[in-house]
Design goal:
The chain is 25% helix and 24% strand. It is an alpha+beta fold. The strands form three sheets. A four-stranded antiparallel sheet has the order 1-2-3-4, sandwiched between helices. The protein has a four-stranded antiparallel sheet with strand order 5-12-6-11. Strand 9 and strand 10 form a beta hairpin.
């Protein structure tokens, strides 16, 4: 249900957005009890790397002890373009109406909750306009737009329902969000590799190969920061840690939000269960770099049946749908939402 335009103008002006410590010290204790729904944002905050342009924004002040009924929280780093710059969580994502219902029936309480969350969301996006933009010659970093990743369908709907969606510049999806729990499906249950293959993390010299196998805009600087695992051919005399070792035949990363990324198996080695094996090994070694809860997630194209099958084979559950959305911040600041 779309709100009336007359509802929007005072909301953008009245709401307040607060900056929190980039470490997440004031946010994580409030969001972790709501796992796995908050998982993408929680993992991004837990990720070890922060730049001078990393910020956490929320619709409530620091050291709030109890979450309000309606709220919005986000992590952003405007220096990461053209990769994902922002993750958002909105309390509406915790509600229980059917995800398949595009326009769910709304009680008066639900309508008020939607209005209030919209107010907080617009205020938060407006606040981005006041943050420093990194000095760069990259034309994709100018502060006028922001790429939001793993955006929950309910939060996207708040933006789509206003001003005919003018605030949305581009939108890619939907992708199915799969949630893994290594506590209920331990990675140690995976059979060992054949004797002529070995696991090892990827190194910078492998990144050109990794990047050549994906159309997703990723940078080597980010791969260097992320937990990774590869499968390498080996022999009694070869060393996978040597710079002269053969290239990997399968690999996977955990991205800054803790999701499976760049999972790939070279075509001549497919059908041997190597994608599953390398994912299990990364779960065993990489999830603990974020937290000890054993949770991971993946965003899978709705038409990628092979990846969906892999997720299900590892015990993952399909939970909700997400999008990668570029938001035009100027459409908010110029009043196009009102």
């Amino acid at each position: 249900m779309a709100l009336e335009d007359t509802d929007l103008k005072p909301y953008v002006m009245a709401s307040t957005t607060y900056l929190h410590e980039p470490s997440g010290i004031t946010i994580l204790p409030l969001l972790t009890p709501h796992l796995p729904t908050t998982l993408p944002l929680v993992r991004r905050i837990q990720f070890h790397h922060r730049s001078p342009y990393s910020h956490i924004l929320a619709s409530f002040p620091p050291f709030t002890s109890t979450l309000p009924p309606c709220y919005v929280v986000a992590f952003c780093d405007l220096s990461r373009a053209p990769e994902t710059e922002m993750w958002i969580f909105c309390s509406l994502e915790l509600s229980t109406y059917s995800l398949s219902d595009v326009s769910p029936p709304q009680s008066s309480d639900r309508q008020q909750e939607t209005k209030e969350c919209t107010r907080h969301l617009l205020s938060l996006l407006e606040k981005l306009r006041t943050l420093d933009v990194p000095p760069t010659t990259d034309s994709s970093i100018d502060g006028s737009t922001v790429l939001v990743g793993s955006l929950h369908e309910r939060t996207l709907r708040l933006l789509q329902d206003h001003a005919n969606g003018k605030v949305i510049k581009t939108n890619h999806g939907p992708y199915a969000k799969y949630i893994f729990s290594t506590q209920t499906h331990p990675p140690s249950s995976q059979p060992p590799l054949p004797s002529n293959l070995v696991f090892a993390p990827l190194r910078p010299e492998h990144f050109p190969l990794v990047l050549s196998r994906t159309s997703i805009p990723r940078k080597a600087r980010t791969l260097l920061l992320c937990p990774s695992m590869g499968i390498f051919p080996t022999s009694p005399t070869s060393d996978p840690d040597s710079t002269t070792s053969p290239p990997p035949i399968a690999w996977v990363f955990l991205s800054p939000d803790g999701s499976i990324a760049s999972l790939h198996c070279e075509e001549t080695h497919r059908g041997r269960g190597l994608a599953r094996a390398v994912t299990c090994k990364l779960f065993e070694t990489g999830i603990s770099s974020f937290a000890s809860d054993g949770l991971a997630h993946a965003d899978v194209d709705m038409e990628n049946l092979a990846s969906q099958g892999l997720c299900k084979s590892l015990g993952a559950k399909e939970a909700w749908e997400v999008y990668w959305t570029r938001i035009d911040l100027g459409a908010i600041s110029q009043g196009e939402m009102s």
